[in-house]
């Protein structure tokens, strides 16, 4: 077509080379191992456990190369411990419980109000008046954690937790317990919307044939400051019942959050990708687990020391999708360079065993790759040493070229030189040197 006819052997060689490359790429795809992430399941039978199952199904469907392995834990404390002991990559945590020391927030799964529900006509007007009384707590997979939250609130008001008796009852028995004076109040923990608080209010209203009330915590802001695992929350009028409205006016309260937490050592790119996947697939998650409609991104400006946002998630939220994908370009650059060098090295090895400079070229290639990788984290003095070694290898490469190094060898060496040069220059810029960058192209002329 272009007036060029390749010799028959050259044509066969090129066709074979293309087939070999295609075969290698296919094998890499088929044999490439899946990325396996371990995740705690949360307490057995809890709402969070159903959400985690939906999250795993949705993520694996969208990303076939990602596989999750679940780790069963008896409670939320054990979930945090599993992350702390590096047994899992992702753990379910609740903000009012002791956090894993190495944990940072990926996403907020739900925000639950801690509500003290009172029967109609209750004389209790503040938390201090619960001393000597009995509080009913609906049975649930997190009843122990809910009781602990009550301990924290009581302690703020200088009420000993031992002074308030607890009785754990099936939700169907809660209303009868208040009607019979077996309990003076109910501690319910749930979202503003369908959940345990709404169900408790309905049960008490039905059993007492009256209008229950929610104990207003005017000190909510101070409680949250003393216990950073709590958040101050505004409870709007009618949040838990519309007619008559419960509460009957806007009220103050405290809330806890359930979160996915990851270790501080997780790469920023990985944490950002996981957060993006969860937030972008929220609609699909809701179809499988309605509780997923409460998922929200953590606040990048939140200064709370308890479970701070992971920097990779903060970077994604601050930059958006386009900048997030741009951040991967550096990774792809180095991967491309390495694949190109390896491909050239394979071609060099396959066809040129007789070349007496082959071993020297290969040693130079792999050392240049190593220099490039080491340069990315080198100190200023280490970088100077790497640059000097780079010059020495460059002189050797030029000498081999002068003595007849093959074209395939030249291509591989050239890519490796570019990789090392780029890494050293990038690290110099990162170290913020004020002097002019050194000329990395200085070396013997070919």
UniProtKB/TrEMBL annotation:
Residues 427-446 are annotated as: Disordered. Residues 435-446 have a biased composition (Basic and acidic residues). Coiled coil: none annotated. It holds the Pfam family NMT1_3. The chain crosses the membrane at residues 331-353. Keywords: Membrane, Transmembrane, Transmembrane helix. This is C4-dicarboxylate ABC transporter substrate-binding protein. It comes from Methylocystis bryophila.
């Amino acid at each position: 077509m272009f007036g060029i006819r390749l010799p028959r052997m050259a044509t066969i060689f090129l066709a074979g080379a293309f087939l070999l490359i295609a075969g290698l790429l296919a094998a890499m795809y088929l044999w490439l191992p899946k990325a396996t992430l371990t995740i705690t399941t949360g307490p057995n039978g809890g709402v969070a456990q159903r959400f985690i199952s939906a999250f795993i199904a949705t993520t694996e469907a969208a990303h076939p190369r990602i596989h999750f392995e679940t780790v069963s834990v008896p409670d939320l404390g054990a979930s945090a411990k599993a992350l702390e002991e590096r047994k899992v990559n992702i753990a379910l945590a609740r903000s009012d419980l002791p956090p894993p020391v190495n944990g940072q927030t990926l996403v907020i799964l739900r925000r639950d109000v801690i509500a003290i529900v009172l029967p109609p006509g209750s004389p209790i007007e503040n938390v201090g008046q619960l001393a000597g009384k009995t509080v009913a707590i609906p049975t649930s997979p997190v009843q122990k954690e809910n009781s602990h939250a009550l301990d924290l609130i009581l302690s703020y008001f200088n009420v000993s937790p031992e002074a308030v008796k607890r009785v754990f009852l099936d939700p169907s028995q809660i209303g009868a317990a208040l009607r019979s004076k077996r309990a003076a109040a109910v501690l319910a923990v749930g979202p503003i919307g369908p959940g345990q608080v709404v169900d408790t209010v309905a049960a008490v209203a039905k059993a007492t044939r009256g209008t229950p009330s929610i104990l207003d915590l005017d000190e909510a802001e101070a409680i949250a400051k003393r216990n950073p695992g709590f958040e101050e929350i505004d409870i709007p009028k009618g949040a838990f019942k519309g007619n008559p409205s419960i509460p009957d006016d806007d009220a103050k309260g405290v809330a806890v959050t359930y979160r996915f937490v990851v270790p501080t050592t997780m790469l920023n790119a990985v944490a950002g990708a996981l957060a993006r996947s969860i937030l972008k697939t929220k609609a699909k998650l809701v179809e499988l687990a309605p509780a997923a409609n409460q998922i929200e991104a953590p606040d990048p400006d939140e200064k709370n020391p308890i479970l701070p946002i992971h920097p990779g998630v903060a970077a994604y939220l601050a930059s958006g999708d386009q900048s997030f994908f741009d951040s991967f370009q550096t990774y792809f650059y180095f991967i491309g360079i390495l694949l190109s060098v390896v491909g050239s090295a394979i071609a060099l090895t396959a066809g040129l065993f007789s070349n007496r400079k082959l071993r020297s070229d290969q040693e130079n290639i792999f050392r240049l790759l190593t220099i490039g990788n080491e340069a990315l984290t080198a100190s200023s003095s280490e970088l100077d040493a790497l640059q000097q070694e780079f010059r020495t290898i460059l002189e050797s490469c030029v000498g081999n070229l002068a003595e007849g190094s093959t074209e395939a060898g030249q291509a591989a060496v050239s890519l490796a030189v570019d990789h090392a040069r780029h890494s050293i220059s990038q690290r110099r810029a990162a170290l913020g040197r004020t002097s002019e960058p050194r000329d990395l192209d200085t070396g013997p002329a070919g």
